[in-house]
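To assess whether ligand presence alters the predicted conformation, the chain was also submitted together with adenosine-5'-diphosphate. Input:
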Amino acid sequence: MEAIIQVKNLTKIYRMGDEVIRAVDDVSFDINKGEVCCLLGSSGSGKSTLLNLLAGIERRTKGEILIEGKPIHKMNEKQLAKFRQKYLGFVFQSYNLIGSMTALENVALPLVFKRISKKARDKRSASMLKAVGLGNRMKHKPKEMSGGQQQRVGIARAFVAKPDIVFADEPTGNLDSKTTKEVIKLIRDIARENNQTIILVTHDSEIAKYADRIIRIFDGKIQSIEVVKNEEDLNNESVSENSKENFDNVTDRISIAN
Ligand code: ADP
Ligand code: MG
């Protein structure tokens, strides 16, 4: 197993007047390539802070964060922005779609910053929307879709540039329980098919069950790390070997499965 994220003695301290908050308190762990990893903990435990540190959005107080062997804590803002664009995708609790744009335009947005023609961008975005079951909603704007559909657009956008790692902070926080399961499975299935790594933040232990690894956070510290092994994992092992070249075939298969 190859570690894609390595965290060593990571600490984030916030100072609010006289108060010192150790939001992340000396944590060390590795996340393997292709793993769906869940950061599980109650509100205020430090999950979002940890996710934002790993994604290079927050600056650490102490410790090391290596992604694909690169020490991101040493990068400047410009390097970090480039790094995020190249390697990372994001799914947000509130979807963060652009209201004036169609589903297709929203999904294509991360590709605008890459050297890809408009035609190719639209083609890939359309295939991604089909993969999340929204082939018939390409021209809809966010307000013309349900919450679950909007989050599917958010997922398509997060994956369209084929990032190595996708970060999702409470991605189902605004969804009902049935849609929640569908959305989590969708994120997991796309990631598995393409050997992408997922960092999923939640306070909900039901959601954590879909992960390969559960890191329990309490008061900024790691309480436990649990590796979840189920039969489905074993069956899927050969599939997850599929490389990125097969992305289009694979996403087509997911759309058929849906
Ligand atoms: P979670 O995502 O698990 O709910 P957070 O990572 O958002 O938790 O917060 C962890 C702790 O750090 C909380 O006590 C919170 O109040 C504090 N905190 C988070 N962000 C900031 C900030 N920007 N400034 C000061 N304190 C913060
Ligand atoms: Mg949070």
